[in-house]
């Protein structure tokens, strides 16, 4: 019989990714980076947080394997580790729409 699709090692890594994305700022950064690579200054300007805070959250996302970075002259550019991760952002958007519909039904 075949084993489960996710063994403990994979499940722990995936759980770490979801734990990192559970913070609203990190989820926002992840969604922005799904649109394309950005440097820290771009991200600071987009979300309005101090550079130290943005860098801290980027480090967590990179540490769990969601982001990669590359030095470009005087800036470090961040991007999703793999383009297929953009599908995760699309999935979150669909879930958000679904939850909004449920909330509207609950008000009726």
From TrEMBL:
InterPro entries: ArsR-like_HTH (IPR011991), HTH_ArsR_DNA-bd_dom (IPR001845), HTH_MetalResp_TranReg (IPR051081), WH-like_DNA-bd_sf (IPR036388), WH_DNA-bd_sf (IPR036390). It comes from the Bacteria. Residues 6-100 form the HTH arsR-type domain. The lineage of its organism: Bacteria, Pseudomonadati, Thermodesulfobacteriota, Desulfomonilia, Desulfomonilales. This is ArsR family transcriptional regulator. It holds the Pfam family HTH_5. CDD domains: HTH_ARSR (cd00090). NCBIfam families: HTH_metalloreg. Keywords: DNA-binding, Transcription, Transcription regulation. It comes from Desulfomonile tiedjei. SMART domains: HTH_ARSR. One of its GO terms (molecular function) is DNA-binding transcription factor activity.
């Amino acid at each position: 019989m075949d084993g489960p699709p996710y063994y403990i090692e994979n499940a722990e890594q995936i759980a770490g990714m979801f734990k990192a994305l559970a913070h609203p700022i990190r989820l926002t950064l992840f969604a922005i980076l799904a649109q394309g690579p950005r440097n820290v200054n771009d991200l600071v300007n987009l979300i309005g947080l101090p550079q130290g805070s943005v860098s801290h959250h980027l480090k967590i996302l990179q540490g769990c394997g969601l982001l990669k970075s590359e030095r470009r002259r005087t800036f470090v550019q961040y991007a999703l580790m793999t383009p297929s991760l953009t599908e995760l952002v699309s999935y979150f958007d669909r879930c958000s729409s679904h939850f909004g519909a449920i909330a509207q039904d609950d008000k009726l």
